[in-house]
Amino acid sequence: MKTPINTLFLLQSLDWKINPWVSWDTWKLSQWQVFSKIKWLQEWIMQYYKLEQETDICSLNTGRVMKTIWMNNEDYDFQIYEEMSFVIVDSKHLTDIWVKNLASKLKKLFIITTNKNHPAFLVQKEFKNIEILFYENEIDFKDMMKKLKNKYKIEKITIQSWWTLNKIFFENDLIHKISVVIAPVIIWWKDTPTLVDWEAITSLEEINKLKVLKLTWIDKLENSYLHLKYDVEGKTEISDWFEVPN
């Protein structure tokens, strides 16, 4: 395989919403903030974060997501293992404080950006464990993944990113596995995104955009939480049209 094996790992509601309260420009509340306020959920949400500690030592996320967990706060303290590496896709959300915070605790910090003035360029002079992959106009995610594997020898990545980026990864066949924890709650708000949220297909010719999954693991966690694992199958095969029997 020319890219790392990428696993999408997320916490979701039963209706597959990935963040209970959201706007396009910024997340008003993180999933943790909302779920931790619901008495039925708060005691058992740590099951998800315990599983998170068992994921790949290289994790991919976005600056938008990181901004919601207060990492731009100089006083924010977070526990990270020194052998871990982070890949962060960001052009405008991260500050020099955030970059310094993370670089001081990680083995490697990869910043993927189209912003030639990203604060990581200045911080890189102080921290030698920062690697920046700069793209002039838009990020070439296939190229990015190939470089992470071939140049930096990263074999596996856990992805915990925003739905728009997940959509791009799926389109480019860059997600190979899914590991999702289902919380026993229905969010139901129409504008709250799902794991991969985009426009609906409008013709039979677009069916090959669908991703077929193979269930490989199911575990009933405490208090009605579920942990599901899937392999993403290869290219979707289209069969001849058939009528549903009576």
Structure overview:
By secondary structure, the protein is of the alpha/beta class. The protein has helices spanning 31-35, 39-42, 46-52, 63-68, 96-103, 120-123, 141-150, 163-171, and strands at residues 5-13, 58-62, 85-89, 108-113, 130-134, 156-159, 177-183, 213-220, 226-232. It has one domain (5-232): Dihydrofolate Reductase, subunit A (3-Layer(aba) Sandwich), CATH 3.40.430.10. A nine-stranded mixed sheet has the order 5-4-3-2-6-1-7-9-8. Helix 4 links the parallel strand 2 and strand 3 (85-89). The chain is globular.
List descriptors:
246 residues; alpha/beta; Dihydrofolate Reductase, subunit A; 23% strand; globular
Average per-residue pLDDT, rounded, comes to: 81
Coarse structural class: alpha/beta
In CATH terms, the superfamily is Dihydrofolate Reductase, subunit A
Can you tell me the CATH architecture? Answer: 3-Layer(aba) Sandwich
- Counted beta strands: 9
Q: Beta fraction of the residues?
A: 15-25%
Radius of gyration: 19 Å
Biggest sheet features: 9 strands, mixed
Q: Could you list the spans in which at least 5 consecutive residues all have pLDDT below 50? A: 21-27
Q: Which of globular, elongated, flat, extended, rod-shaped describes the shape?
A: globular
Provide the number of structural domains: 1
The helix fraction, in percent, is 10-25%
CATH topology: Dihydrofolate Reductase, subunit A
CATH top level label: Alpha Beta
What is the distance, rounded to the nearest whole angstrom, between the alpha carbons of the first and last residues? 44 Å
Main-sheet strand order equals 5-4-3-2-6-1-7-9-8
**What is the H/E string?**
EHHHEHEHEHEHEHEEE
Count of runs of 4 or more consecutive helical residues = 8
